[in-house]
Amino acid sequence: MWRKLESKTRTGYHPSFVWTEIMSFIKGSYESLSSKTGYLSKEEYMELGRKRAPNFSGQRDDIYDIFLLYEHYKKNHQMFDETDVVHDIFRRLANMETTPITIHQIYVDETQDFTQAELFLLIRLCKNPNDMFLTGDTAQSIMRGIAFRFEDLKTLFFHIKQNTKAKKSSKSSKSLEVHVPQLHQLTYNYRSHAGILKLASSILEVLVRFFPESFDRLEPDQGLFPGPEPILIESCTFSDLAVLLSGNRRETSNIEFGAHQVILVYNEEAKENLPEELSCGLVLTIYESKGLEFDDVLLFNFFKYSQASKEWRVVTKHLNELAETVYSRTSRTEQCVRIDNDLLMSSGRPRPLDFDPNQHKILCSELKQLYTALTRARVNVWIYDEDPEKRAPMFEYFKALNLVKPVDITELNEESLSKVIFAENSSKQDWIKQGDSFMKNHLYNVAAQCFGKGGDRRKQMLAQAHDRALLASRRKDKLREKNEMRDEFLFAAELYLNCERYPEAAKCLSNAKEVKPAISLYTKLRQFEKAAELCKKNGLIVECSRLYESADKFNKAVSILYENGVYDIALDVLKRYKMRETEMMRNDCQSLERLRTNRPDKIYTKEKISLRAAEKYHEQNDFKRMQEAVSRFRDEDDKIEFYKKHQYINEAANLIASSGKVSEAVNLYMKHGMLDKARYIAEKSKDDIIIAKTLHDISRITLATEHDNQALDTVKDDLTKSLEIFKRYGEKNLAGNVLLLHAKVYDDIKFILSAGEAFLDTRPCKNEAGYLECCNLLVKLTDQKDQNILDFLLKGVNCLIKVCNIILLKFSSICKGDLADEKKFVTYCHFYGMFPKGDVNFEVFPATKPLCENILSIKPASSTHKVVTLDTERCSHMIVCHLLT
């Protein structure tokens, strides 16, 4: 990622320092947790003090621009970093009224490896922050991206103290008072002897000289006992080094080291390039060795692989300055520093370099790495390096201060050689014990090496399995190494199986995408939930549900099926849960409560699942299975509504008719233009009124859509039959409607006059709207002006006023109509073929060819077998306008 970001900025900054600025300050400061974005704004970052963030005090504009590019890249690639996780956890905790668990005390070791944001989160988690205990050594702060000082930790507690006071005063409630903790120095070192500690302290002096704000300056550690001087090996080849390490005891080409001896190297590259002769020893990078200790340490090629190069020469400048002041009475080093002047006067010394805080930042982390490496030793320290130029400043510094014992192979005889031999033998028990220690620290490769030397084949195999699994997991994000990752996981799985570590084997099989063997193994281990999660991840939905059910997780068993559309099996699981619950209740089973804890959620009812199933099968045009699903609906109305919603009109009408609502079934057919079915179901009902209404409606539709003689004859027959029925049952309003159609068929005004009479004789509500339609048709059919027609039309004037008043009063805010007027309004609406839906809308069914179709200008495009919803007030006004014109 850095190469891509650097190519866009071309700033030339070292990536580790940029990373530190982002992780420790822009995103890792405690202030960033209060931000919605999870990081400081540019202004907030620019305001950070120089002591707190000294590296880029003059280049923060550039750093923030790089940070923005980093965030953009991360977002585009759907990535997140540790600070994003910390911010998310902190945000969720802040939104909780109470935390789900209570943590009374927290103990933190290696505190220097935490960002402020991480420590702030730990403080937030602790019930009483005053009971926290934190230890660390900022001189060992070699974690990439972390810039930590205990002084900053005190500032953090002070900030929390102030916030707590503010909350207490604002809420006027009791609140825990947080104290700023005291800083205690552990001055006695129980690991290393005085010789090693003096050497380490000399490195701290260099840090104090050049990077005083990078760590907490404390008094030098005091050793409790003396010990051999650290050995500095120079002027020899690697072959000579091999002789120094093992003397004349070598029986093979490889050098045999002991269980408590370690070879420390700068990084993984240095480890890979280690000479084969040293491969039998325990080899760790300095970062891996953090927190560990050994009797003897061989620091191999540290300077050769160091990221610093010419920067080391500032140490020479520091040594020269130290030499100039060593005899000054005012110097604090007067009594404790002895410098070898002969060494400083010798030729071939490294050239001193003036320190530049902007150019030589890298030296800070390198000095801390060197300090960490040397303080891993309890007894012996050996330093060897193959780069004479890069090692020279520090080698000279150590020798000038008389802190090391330089060893030259050319000056050693047989007797003196025997006194400096590094390599030693260890018992098998020592090797196994050391292997156990490495396992606890997750250093599986060297642990396997220890177990191998200790003869414990099973532990060795287990450590190798852990190591292979770890290596494989590091390849997960590298697409090019996908095949290698799979092979590593498979190899690790095989080793785990040989060690009878079946859960780990199953996990490796899963990561290797060997899904079925992994599921089978989890199932045999009765880890049903893990097997189910693996099935879910790989889309094995039915198998996933079955495994959840085996684990008594019925809620998950149903929900996974429901969410993936496997509704039939979901219903089976629901049924089995109820049977299981009933059986356990009958047997008074103690595990009933545990079962009920994982009962299917209330939303997963038989009706809801059946509805979703019916919807699915409808979409798939699977009519048979859809009907099976609908048949499981408890409520008949739900079945009808489903059929109507999805235009299964025949099924809906049959259900309606079977429930005794034949008239409603007929209307449904009519609204969708299914005239033959409407006629059939009406005639089948043997109900005269229903039959007559159906014949009338069919006649009206036929007259509006068909014009052949055969259709006209059928209409005449149907109208005659329906009129006879309505007259027989005294249905005058309906008879009036039929007579109107008679008038249109026969062009005979006597039918109009009879229809008008029928509309006004209707009880309990006269149908004045029907009478007005008679007047309208009468004017169209005749020019005669005899007294009967004039009287008929004069009555129409009164009806016009009545109808318009009732319609307009419906929407008047001044005067509302009474109940009788409300009934008349509904009668008029039905006459025009408009059916109120709520208070503000009408529904019109164009397929029935209602009288309002032309009045309201319903377009032919919408006149298919669908409902049209119209605004009630607007339609009413259009009706009034029609009547008045």
Shape: elongated
Rg (C-alpha, Å): 47 Å
Major sheet: size, sense and barrel closure? 6 strands, parallel
Average residue pLDDT: 86
Q: Numbering strands along the chain, what is their spatial order in the largest sheet? A: 7-6-8-9-5-10
N-C termini distance? 79 Å
Give the tally of β-strands.
13
Number of helices: 43
**Low-confidence segments, ≥5 residues, pLDDT <50?**
329-335
- Our estimate of the beta-strand percent is 5-15%
* Helical proportion, percent range: 55-70%
Structural class computed from helices and strand pairing: mainly alpha
Descriptive account of the structure:
- With 885 residues, the chain is mostly helical.
- Helices cover 57% and strands 6% of the residues.
- The strands form four sheets. Strands 7-6-8-9-5-10 form a six-stranded parallel beta sheet. Strands 11-12-13 form a three-stranded antiparallel beta sheet.
- Helix 10 (268-272) links the parallel strand 6 (261-265) and strand 7 (282-285).
- The chain is elongated.
- The two termini are 79 Å apart.
- Residues 329-335 have low confidence and may be disordered.
